[in-house]
Specification:
A: mainly beta; six-stranded mixed beta sheet; 9 strands; 0% helix; B: 118 residues; mainly beta; four-stranded antiparallel beta sheet; 11 strands; globular
């Protein structure tokens, strides 16, 4: 299984929106509605932000939203805040009880 | 509150076997709801799924690592373990243990850095 493809970086000013893409194949992203997104701050463990394409765990602000079309999933952060700066990783179910992750996107709040 | 804590040597020699243990507290590893897994992150790079285990002992490995990986569980100690054989410098990474529910990870350990060097 190959890593999912994410842009290396994305940025936006406070209050604006930023969207991160995550491209896979029909064997992972496109084949299942099982895409998740994780936020990672420097020196910290990743934190689940979105699961099953668009569901938010308790405590995650509704500024974070997810979607999917074909083999590409997206995470949108609306109303950017300084604390949203960090690395974001997508993950997907890849069949046979395995997962695959993306290479990560560094989000900068300008 | 569930906590996962990785432990093991921080330095492993090339060609040897990397061994890590994850101790779970605040919850039972024998729950039928969850899988327990390992994920690694090479310095400055992205996440890589290594594999997971169910409390019954069923295992699922990343195909690219399958020939070198063994994950086991000890329900009496509420622990699960990772062994990665024939390591090289490419296996240098921050290793996380994690709790998986279905298709996503909802709890992560803090991670432990393992360096492969002679």
């Amino acid at each position: 299984q190959s890593a999912l493809t994410q842009p290396p970086s994305a940025s936006g000013s406070p209050g604006q929106s930023v969207t991160i893409s995550c491209t896979g194949t029909s064997s992972d992203v496109g084949g299942y509605n099982y895409v998740s997104w994780y936020q990672q701050h420097p020196g910290k463990a990743p934190k689940l932000m979105i699961y099953e394409v668009s569901k938010r765990p308790s405590g995650v602000p509704d500024r974070f939203s997810g979607s999917k079309s074909g083999n590409t999933a997206s995470l949108t952060v609306s109303g950017l805040q300084a604390e949203d700066e960090g690395d974001y990783y997508c993950g997907s179910y890849a069949g046979s009880n395995n997962l695959v992750f993306g290479g990560g996107t560094k989000v900068t709040v300008l | 509150q569930l906590q996962l804590q990785e432990s093991g040597p921080g330095l492993v020699k090339p060609s040897e076997t990397l061994s890590l243990t994850c101790t779970v507290s605040g919850g039972s590893i024998s729950s039928s709801t969850y899988y327990w897994g390992w994920i690694r992150q090479p310095p400055g790079r992205g996440l890589e799924w290594i594999g997971s285990i169910y409390y019954s002992g069923s295992t699922y490995y990343n195909p690219s690592l399958k020939s070198r990986v063994t994950i086991s569980v000890d329900t009496s100690k509420n622990q699960f373990s990772l062994k990665l054989s024939s390591v090289t410098a490419a296996d240098t990474a921050l290793y996380y243990c994690a709790r998986r529910i279905g298709d996503y990870i909802n709890y992560w350990g803090q991670g432990t850095l393992v360096t492969v060097s002679s």
